[in-house]
Design a protein that fits this description.
- This protein has 8 helices and 5 strands.
- It has 212 residues and is α/β, with parallel strands linked by helices.
- A 5-stranded parallel β-sheet has the order 2-3-1-4-5, with helices on both faces.
- Helix 2 runs antiparallel to helix 3, helix 3 packs antiparallel against helix 4 and helix 4 packs antiparallel against helix 5.
- The mean pLDDT is 95.
- It binds thymidine-5'-diphosphate (TYD).
Length: 212
């Protein structure tokens, strides 16, 4: 059984965590041994950088400075957790990876090139995800879901969420561009108006061949 590196992507509120949890449960029923990580975070350094990056009301930084911090968290996660898990034959389900950096910090072409260079240096060819699943949602629906979630948990918007709808629209565009340029390795799923169960069935169908 080959261990697989599976990445879930999408704008804030697209349901990555729910889908990642369901995916992990399904992989277990297949007799596989998955681990579940999220970016930025999971490692001690990643969680510290997460606090800094997502602090509500923080000043804005240059996208490349931000990208470097996300990549520091990424390197730590890869080195400490992803690589050892894959080597031990365990599947990795990761919420967000380099595609997030491209969509959020790489909106200008020159910044996207910088991020691709960083990906080459930090991730390299051997640790690229086997599959990236992008959960696509119109921005109005994403904002609505975020509002509902934050009202339910009592959580205020974080430093990325408070950038507003124009920024999120650009993020979505970044994901669509990413998926269009990498049709082989990426599944773009329109999850608008779908239940979590429906989305999960699509994800499972998409992964069937890779996991066979
Ligand atoms: P998180 O709460 O994990 O996302 P979600 O709301 O989807 O559950 O927040 C992570 C935030 O960090 C999210 O707004 C996207 C942003 N981010 C980047 O801007 N660049 C990156 O490289 C990564 C990994 C995340």
């Amino acid at each position: 059984m080959t261990a697989r590196f599976l990445v879930l992507e999408g704008v804030d509120g697209s349901g990555k965590t729910t889908q990642a949890n369901a995916l992990v449960a399904w992989l277990r029923t297949l007799g596989r041994d998955p681990v579940h990580f999220r970016e930025p975070g999971t490692t001690p350094l990643g969680e510290r950088l997460r606090k800094i990056l997502l602090e509500p009301g923080r000043e804005s930084w240059h996208p490349r400075s931000e990208a470097l911090l996300f990549f520091a968290a990424r390197r730590e996660l890869l080195h400490c957790l992803v690589q050892p898990a894959l080597q031990a034959g365990r599947d990795v389900v990761c919420e967000r990876f380099t595609p997030s950096s491209l969509a959020y910090q790489g909106q200008a072409d020159a910044d996207a090139d910088f991020i691709l260079d960083l990906d080459h240096l930090v991730v390299g060819p051997e640790l690229q995800p086997d599959r990236v699943i992008v959960l696509d949602l119109p921005v109005s629906e994403s904002l609505q879901r975020l509002g509902l979630r934050n009202a339910k948990t009592g959580k205020a918007m974080d430093g990325m969420e408070e950038r507003g709808s124009d920024f999120l629209r650009a993020v979505r565009k970044g994901y669509l561009r990413y998926a269009a340029a990498r049709e082989q390795q990426t599944a773009l799923m329109d999850v608008s108006g779908m239940t979590a169960e429906q989305v999960q069935s699509q994800i499972r169908a998409d992964l069937q061949e890779l996991l066979a």
